């Protein structure tokens, strides 16, 4: 007799399964383009030098201890994070109607925010882009949302944004629905709306009274410029929206496994903040009680110190420039080989990921024949491309499309 005999095998999580498969593969030229983590030109993980410096300073600081943080986390960290997102001169900051809540990275911010919206505001329907980061659905449904709906986003034919489809779908959304918007560097397509398109999106969101929930997993990492990558969120704030934004320090600080993130909350009425905070406190208390300190202290230490902050911006530039360079190299190689199709989308897309346009069969062929690990959707992580494998990757794509 077992309590567990009725439990069915769940489906594997594609990106983790792919990495495992790649790790176990002993083919010398294998390439991991699945996982979304930065790699150096040598294909190695990178601990940002500014993070090492902060860790040393923290290790030597005898005033720090291991006592619990408050339920909403380290205050300096969440304040600095919200300020970084919205900009110090944001009307929401100046008018004291925005605050931050430390979270378990970007995923945790989404989950806490979603759970609050479902349980305290009675939200039931959320919208996400087709395609989106594959975890959005699971996080929102697990948090208590009842209905997941999609809005069109990627046009495979034009290998770009389907703005008409996007606007039409959200225009048909029931009033009060929550809409997940990628702040920048849309995952998985790497394709963002232009500023004019964002203006149109904001008009519909306002007209339909949708609740914008931004997901900002790549601030600074995408373009190398913290302000530019926050443009869309700041624009919405300037238009008077109340909103949530999940922020992750996984990519821009390289703090993947430290689970360091923030939920920024922008409200219209400062007198309502205390009640909202008290309910978010209860949400977190019932989930994991309080967050860990290490990553938050690192970020807070860096954002609070002008010299380290500048050093961090330099580190971000190193990462974003390498990715932009690899986009150029990959496109050049594909075009040099005369690979069928157009490849301008590779350099026009931004951030960690690129939607190559390869279909499921072609993507699986890349894995099986060339040991180039990529998602079935045709998504590749640009971070896995290096000066020493870019020719091999391009040649393999070319052969896949011509064989
Ligand atoms: N949202 C998006 C769009 C992402 O790409 C990611 C990272 N893959 C996340 C959220 C959350 O990541 P984490 O929880 O590691 O911060």
TrEMBL record:
Its main location: cytoplasm. One of its GO terms (biological process) is aspartate biosynthetic process. Residues 29-397 form the Aminotransferase class I/classII large domain. Keywords: Aminotransferase, Cytoplasm, Pyridoxal phosphate, Transferase. Its EC number is 2.6.1.1, 2.6.1.3. It catalyses: (2S)-2-aminobutanoate + 2-oxoglutarate = 2-oxobutanoate + L-glutamate; L-cysteine + 2-oxoglutarate = 2-oxo-3-sulfanylpropanoate + L-glutamate; L-aspartate + 2-oxoglutarate = oxaloacetate + L-glutamate; 3-sulfino-L-alanine + 2-oxoglutarate = 3-sulfinopyruvate + L-glutamate. The lineage of its organism: Eukaryota, Metazoa, Ecdysozoa, Arthropoda, Hexapoda. Belongs to the class-I pyridoxal-phosphate-dependent aminotransferase family. This is Aspartate aminotransferase, cytoplasmic. PANTHER family: ASPARTATE AMINOTRANSFERASE (PTHR11879), GLUTAMATE OXALOACETATE TRANSAMINASE 1, ISOFORM B (PTHR11879:SF55). InterPro entries: Aminotransferase_I/II_large, Asp_trans, PyrdxlP-dep_Trfase, PyrdxlP-dep_Trfase_major, PyrdxlP-dep_Trfase_small. It is found in: Cytoplasm. Its cofactor is pyridoxal 5'-phosphate. One of its GO terms (molecular function) is L-aspartate:2-oxoglutarate aminotransferase activity. GO terms for cellular component: cytosol. It comes from Pachyrhynchus infernalis. Homodimer. It is an enzyme of class 2 (transferase).
